[in-house]
Fold each of these.
Amino acid sequence: MPNLKAVDVVIVGGGWTGLMMAKELTSRTGLTVTVLERGIPRKTSDYALDMDELDYAVRLRMMQNIAEDTITHRHSMRDPAVPVRQYGSFLPGSGVGGAGEHWNGASWRFLPSLFNMRTHLAERHGAAKLPANLDVQDWGVTYDDLEPHYWRAEQMMGVGGKAGNVNGKIMDGGNPFEGARKSEYPLPPLRNSHLASLFGEGARKLGYHPHPAPAANLSETYKNPDGITRAACGYCGYCERFGCMVGAKAQPSNTLLPVLQRRNKFELRTGCWVRRVVHKDGKATGVQYIDAKGEEMFQPASIVILATFTLSNTRLLYLSKIGTPYDATAGKGTLGKNLTHQVEGSTRVFFDKPLNAFMGTGGLAMRISDFDGDHGLKGDEGLLRMGMIGVLSNGSRPIQTFDAMPRGAAKSNWGSDWKAAALKWRDRNAIIALSGEHLSYKQNFMDLDPTYTDKYGDPLLRFTLDWTDHEHRQSEYAKEIAQKIAPAMGAVLAEPIGGRNRYNVINYQSTHIQGGTVMGASPESSVVNRHQQHWDVQNLWVLGASCIPQNASHNPTLTILATTTWAADALIDRYLKHPGLVA
Amino acid sequence: MKRREFLTIPRQAVGGLLLYTLAGEPFRVSAQQNGDIRVPLRFFTEAEARVITAACERIFPSDATGPGATEAAVVIYIDRQLAGPYGNDKYRYTKGPWVESYPEHGYQAKETPREIYRQGLRDLGDGFAQLPVDAQIQKLTAMEKSRFFQMLRTHTIEGMFADPMHGGNAGLIGWQLIGYPGPVMSYRAEIDKHYGVPYRPKPRSMEQIVGRKPALWEDEKV
């Protein structure tokens, strides 16, 4: 295996966290930084012709090629696992920018209680009252630690929104339940779709506090602190599963990459499939990868940073035999634990007037946070945590939405009467959705599959994951609330979707799969410390959603950017000066 | 190489049909003197294309509510999809062992879309297109639960509403039917207007927006 010239830092993964860390390192140090990305190069002009629902939203052109690498899934340790052969309940991206290219743009901060969940729940309910299989934990970092980092990420992307809590002062029109912000958003909220305005009016009538979602789809033309100027959003409706052709949606390719391309100590290599972190005597020495020509390479480096999606971060540590694999039976070990997704609970609402729902943008949502976290829970709901409820106007495209209709509106799902019903209800329906927290449990985890392999013969990652009564109850409670909101917003009919089903790997939910390399205060409960430095291999750092110990109701992008600059501060200001474990 | 197959579509009122190569290059097939259009096929034989056309028409019929799968040339869309990488499962995980599992794990069998269609065509029978409509409906109803039927139904919707560059939605007939404008760069001035009233800009395809000129070919060049 050829040895390449050593670099100071090698970063695995060219998405939000990898490029953000590369930008911090090349801005603040003289280190040489190489990013290895498995997928293809990307730039804004690639997206000039991507407003094609079939190729991008149905055939999923921007995602990791599932033929090469996937996961296996089983509902419990008693079941055999089978591969996820086609997407999918979540959509991992590939190429420079990763999932940060095809995301919707929702840019929330997590609630303060997310970061000290174990302490918070123990104080609220008493430690003895918490379920025995609950595996939530404190992150070791608090909302207050991250507040300035959230602000940096919001400025970098140009997030538009309405603050609900500035330094403890509750602001009208914002989310009064959010953690205190130091300042208003960089930009105002997006313009309202008809659907968002209907939801806002309806929720307000019932005494709730509707507020626009914070969005990285620029509400106005914006120049960020790095000097990058991007155009305002056109509400074209092609965000999720697409790259933005005008660069209005913040993506790594239009915010971080233009800065990095001017740095001469930065190198980005695409088509590089990292298979192992190589380590000796408790120290990482570099990474082994297969390059775009199919040759196996070794890239020596003084510092190794894993910055891939949740799946590959976890799998690379397993394949490299770094850390202690989680043993669910014994309740010991850390690598692979705290696998979480997000909890859904949808109600389809129907109207007698059209919504013109083809207009929209990924971040254009109206929500209520009255039931988010646990501040809205009285104690008799059978719930520890809940989530946000609201509507999303991200652009309704015809293939995916054609035949939404009330139950019983047609006698089958094809033929003349089906077509007539679909045409009647088209553009007259929407979803009131829950985006719910998913607590972590001892029985939900990731390890290596004993049977199935990727294109290079390496074992696939295996999910053991299912819903519990708590998640079903979250869904049901959201549907009860939606039944109240629907008539207040002028809907003529509201039908809850789904029931107490098991985890389904086929139906898309969100791409917010988290856990596996969680952060925390002690090596007994976490893979990385509060700065995302590996406990055992201290020149190895792990970034991104794999470090999140339990799933928020909120989309994680802003938080993983904030934890990345938080980690960068520890790495640059402390570790580089005194190599060793950063306290 | 097998003999080139064509689907002949009677289309008296139209001068021709805009089609696309598998590489996405546009070309126009002109109507012949009798008004018929000869469309080169990539996967189906002409006989198979007639069966699929009839089956798609039952799924998405042309009726009092508007045009259907035949007018939209859905069969051309399906022909192109099956001929391309999707038809051969290039984007599906296809390593064994192959085992059956719970419905929550989705389709777990080995057969590719091409194989599923060949079997489905056998099940429908060569004479399907000539059957009376009621008999066609009866036959499809009996197959409703099959992987083939579920695929055919999904592909019919895709062929109605995908950009015409993929072969269906001929003349933007699907988008006109539902009032979908196709790709539009900006609704910035419109998003917070038209509340409660239909706003239906005239549909345009990617081709019309980009402005590529189609080549004028009688038959598709190989």
Note: Chain B has a mean pLDDT of 89.
Amino acid sequence: MCGIAALQLRNPLLHPQMGSMLSSMMCQIVDRGPDSAGLAVYNTPGLVSEGTSTLSLLGKEHGKALADIQSSLDALLPPDAAASARIVGDTTLVSGAVATDLLVKAVSETLPGSTIIGRGEHVAVMKSVGHPMEIAAEHGLEAMAGSQGLSHTRMATESAVTAGGSHPFSVADDLCLVHNGSFSNHATVRRDLKREGVVFDSDNDTEVGARYVASRLQQGDTLEEALVNLGKVLDGFYTLVVTTADSMAVVRDPIACKPAIIAETDDYVAMASEYRALAALPGIENARIFEPEPGKVYTWSL
Amino acid sequence: MVTLTAPDTNSHATAAQETFLVDLADSPVRALNQELHDAAGGQSWTVTNPGGKHSLAVGINADVNVTVNGHAGYYAAGMHQKGEVIINGNAGVGLAENIMSGKVHVKGDASQSAAATGHGGLVVIDGNAGARCGISMKGVDIVVGGNIGHMSAFMAQAGRLVVCGDAGEALGDSIYEARIYVKGTVASLGADCIEKPMATEHLSELAGLLAAAGRADNPADFKRYGSARNLYHFSVHNSTSY
Amino acid sequence: MTITSLPQETPAALPAQHTEELGLRESATFDRATIADIQRAAATGVYDIRGWGAKRKVPHFDDLLFLGASMSRYPLEGYREKCDTDVILGGRHASRPLHLQTPVTIAGMSFGALSANAKEALGRGASEVGTSTTTGDGGMTPEERGQSKHLVYQYLPSRYGMNPDDLRKADAIEIVLGQGAKPGGGGMLLGQKITERVAGMRTLPVGIDQRSASRHPDWTGPDDLEIKIGELREITDWKTPIYVKIGASRPYYDTALAVKAGADVVVVDGMQGGTAATQQVFIENVGIPTVAAIPQAVQALQELGVHRKVQLIVSGGIRTGADVAKAMALGADAVAIGTAALIALGDNDPRYAAEYAALGSAAGFYDDFQDGRDPAGITTQDPELSSRLDPVAGGRRLANYLRVLTMEAQTIARACGKSHLHNLEPEDLVALTIEASAMARVPLAGTNWIPGAK
């Protein structure tokens, strides 16, 4: 049970303001989820760069100095990978000019036991336990530029209040998913996915949704098709926001109890759990404001 | 709280004729509601910068006029009893929930469960209303200028729901004695809800509701829906409808 | 259960002694009650709806015992040394918390399910001993408000009879998510009980079946509940305590979420908790026993640092002062009684034996609260039947019973060396069975073993 705020910036002139806009949205949904929070930002200079894979790791303490991590990665990766590691707030970012899977392998060997919470060429994911606005401040969200941003504040229902249980769940390159609600048959879907070889990091119901979408996308679904299929397989109550390198999607279950509101202008698409999160956005007075219809998948591409 | 110029500058003007201004950018919702609960009949308030905040102007029990300039959050004008609340913007979930009497008028859209369980009074929504509009309504009159979402008038017990646009899926599911008038299309009717003939009394009732909501729609363009009353007594033959 | 719709010529079962003499063996799987259920279902095509709580045997307070003081601990002198029983409910956010003289409260039961006289008697009895009573689905009656010193107003999914005037008159508000007899279920009050007055209060046509919703119409989940609680606080100017009542199924999570949503008091109702009218399949098969629910709820409160700050009221099968003391030792701040209170008023009284028999039941077995033909005049709207319950005399009986529960709990608390019931703790208890030990999280008597404890 949670608060969601998501933003896709259509106008590149707004990219420098991504962090401040998302931060203003997020601070209005803190009440909905005071336990913990997570952020995903896309194409943020200084965090990710074109042609380079970046992994987001949970926490900043891994029992190894950054220089040691870097030299270990250098030894494991091809010479031109130019691996780097740095700490942003409570998150460690590791990058290298190699395929993501190769980087994952090198990180797993360098930092066994670390949890990868984000992966891809375009996205950085940051999560922590505590007051959502302190988490946002610690990671410097306010000053971040970018093309898309996604934030989630969590009131844990049936899984533990841990950073690993926070959203977004990012389980495939540049894919992120956040959820408000609760799936009622996630244990069964989890078993089915496990049988197909999917590996899980947490006991969180939302991770099942994220793994399911990733699995569908891998099998060739478009984002929209994957979410339509999710509606056929996962039961329960949900408002979901899913982002990829260049798209954002919103879907609510057919009963649609959990709230969602969308504001669309020529400059941006913004989605939040409540209108108050949208109230301070520039040009909101002239935005097209609507609530997503139950059971309907909405997608926007950059 | 800032007191605006009273409409009548005459020194004999009473407090009842003043308009009070509350700017929610720097005043908490608690202060607004406390003022409204302490209010005397005839007073007026203008509320600015609502910013989607929740529980605005709830529990009003005096004959006051409140105008909110902007969008309201959940439960605006909740449990309203007297006077009129006007929202020059959109309203969030549960607008005027359990309204007893008086009037609430939203100039924009309303989110889901608008006028839920309302016992009386009039709720006017110029724009669209979301899902479950008029759920478990118990006597309230609701006039929606636009469309309404799915499961509207679910278990509606009494009162009238007027929709000048289209209605979503499962309209009037498990309805009791409430009456529904829809001008546009109905995506589907819920269990035990059927179309019923428009008699003269219904046309005049509808005309009255439209007039009260300040609308010029022609009552003859509407269809009426209500309960088939097949679920009033448990029967094994209806078991798939429960 | 209802068997009246079966053919009347059904012969009475042979006396048990006779069947044994014949060497007949009753099936444990298909016992006589099960066979009757199948026959009833086949004859009517409708599931059985009845009142009362779960009848199956589940681990309960009977499976727990107190460790009285002897040498290592000192008891208080009974009758002389003080053992306080009062409790303050709802001080977390409300400016007017309730201060009750006994931790035994009366659970929510509606006017409609119960007669006006029964509601009045509950109010009289509770007020006499300084405790609270609770409305139910259908609103507040003047009789009830007038006779109740402390009245808790239930806020239910159906919102029958819900209005802001009564909300402001209430001493506390109880937001009901569910009840132990049917977590996740709505209600069904059959037409016989929807009299003119009941129908008027609920805005329903007279005589129809009333279906009640299982989910609130304008919020779902703890994040929206927080906003709903905010609205109720705004309407009552932050004076009135707000309880959240849950049916016990996942009480650890639900208690934590109620606290996070802003509740002042959490009410947890175990599966033995009663109901006026629900499908039997629901009553017997959904939810967890009260003794299993308490430790989970208490754990959630303790982890959030609010145990004894957000009070826990426990209900579902409380019958004696020992049950009260055991619930409190496990961590409850107060308890609520429903079925036991009706029995104290006169429900299932043997003096109506002939009338129970005429209804196909017997004193001690009557559970057709939905039918409205209660010979004791409690679960009925029939004027002749309900006039049998004198609200003054009924109130006196209830007050007597509440005094006994309180004195019994005090007796045990003194024996454990406690000068206040609230000082009872789980370490004062042991369990008689492995099941109760695992559920209540107290050691099996004579051992240090708690199955499942880390």
Note: The helical segments of chain A are 18-26, 66-76, 100-110, 132-138, 186-195, 205-218, 223-233.
